[in-house]
Amino acid sequence: MQRDGSQNDYQLFVGIDVAALTVTAAWLLTHAKPTAAITLPQTPEGHCQLAERLLAVCPTAAEVLVVIEATGSYWMRLATFLALKGFAVSVVNPAQSHYFARALLKRSKSDALDAQTLAQLAAALQPGLWQPPPEIYYQLQQRLQHRDALLQQRQQLHNQLHALRQFPLVVAAVQASLEQLSHTFDEQIAQMEAQLEALLAQDSLWHQAATKLRTIKGIGSVTAGWVLVSTLNFGCCATVEAAVAYAGLAPRSHRSGTSLHRPERIGHAGNARLRTALYMASLSAIRCNQQIKSFYQRLRAAGKPAKVALCAAARKLLHIAWAVVKTDTPFDAEHGRLVCLQ
């Protein structure tokens, strides 16, 4: 979760390049050059050694700004450890550090150089701070990902069964084994969905948000779960425009003078899983949600391609989702507005 960095009197700026087995760190004091990078093991002991090294340079943890790239999942344990130790931790998009390095005209790349570049980025930009998400985030996120994996594996199994049945001779034992596996996947998917419902009921804030989201026709329990997990219950999106940009549903213009004028498109930036969840929800919403249906039909009548209209419908769903969660107000699908509760 990102939060605004209200404190800008940092004394030490640290850049950390995280890998599967090691962490490489470099730091600099205000208006100084980065130090030579050090490499430590990616273990609890290595994390403690790093914290000790940083505190030896700057004894006050809150005056140390640590910048880490959000690459894969290797950064999560270290970022959480440092944040709980009181360090100011910022987790940046790898694209930001990539273009920052290009702006510095850096051509070479190594773990040590990346750590030094991140330290320079910390000193120059002082990006917003990161906070560890609540436990329910990990509980929901891992189950949602596991459900996705189970669905994919079940589809692969169904494809194998379909191909098997095309043979003139089908071995009954093989077919029975595949069908049994398919039944097992069905049971496990149902178990994951039941656990998702039970987990949401255990956290009052997330349960209230999920309940409000499900008042929007087209958004079910799984989509609501992905929306809440991806945006941390909209805690990382202060405005609806930020939420749309984070989902990658904001059209991007590409124009320059009179010679370059490309059509606006959403591209591939943003949270792909959130974008997929909203896009799939829009397929249902254009049939059962009168407001989204009318909006979609107006775009199609204006000549917009189906996919463009669906992406716009997904963006409108996100606008509504942000509003119902932020105002803690259910949505009145019949009148296309928020319900005012007394």
UniProtKB/TrEMBL annotation:
It comes from the Bacteria. Keywords: Membrane, Transmembrane, Transmembrane helix. It holds the Pfam family DEDD_Tnp_IS110. The chain crosses the membrane at residues 12-30. This is Transposase IS116/IS110/IS902 family protein. The keyword Metal-binding does not apply. InterPro entries: Transp_IS110-like_N, Transpos_IS110, Transposase_20. Residues 14-164 form the Transposase IS110-like N-terminal domain. GO terms for biological process: DNA transposition. One of its GO terms (molecular function) is transposase activity. The keyword Plastid does not apply. Residues 211-297 form the Transposase IS116/IS110/IS902 C-terminal domain.
